[in-house]
Amino acid sequence: MGIGERIKQIREAFDLTQEEFGARLGYGRAHISMLEGGERIPTERAIVDICRIFGISREWLLEGKGDMRGDEQNFIAAVVDSMGIMDPEEREFLISYFRLPEEHRKAFVRFLDGLLEQQKKEVTAAR
Fold first, then answer.
1. Domains defined for the chain, CATH in brackets
2. Does residue 85 surpass a pLDDT of 80?
3. 21 to 39, 48, 53, 86: CA distances (angstroms)
């Protein structure tokens, strides 16, 4: 797999169109299409931006070695940012949530389910 295919894999992992992906990097759709198709080689600036903005491992992007995710913290932030516009508190909440170990995330979900169930009971009782 070449670098163009890995760029496409990143774009698809974030569920972005070529236009949306390009907008985040400051490029047009045609430029992204040429990068993905191997018709253009990404500049050093493009490589740095892709790795920084999407939290991607430089080694993976350039050579296909290791895991796609580079710095875990940047990757989590990039995933949260790809979810769309939200206020800063919601963004920080989601980043914090995804940084929790899996067992803590599951416990948190159970806690929230309990709160929602309690709220339903209170609303039903008030009727």
1. 3-70 (1.10.260.40), 88-126 (no CATH)
2. no
3. 17, 15, 10, 19
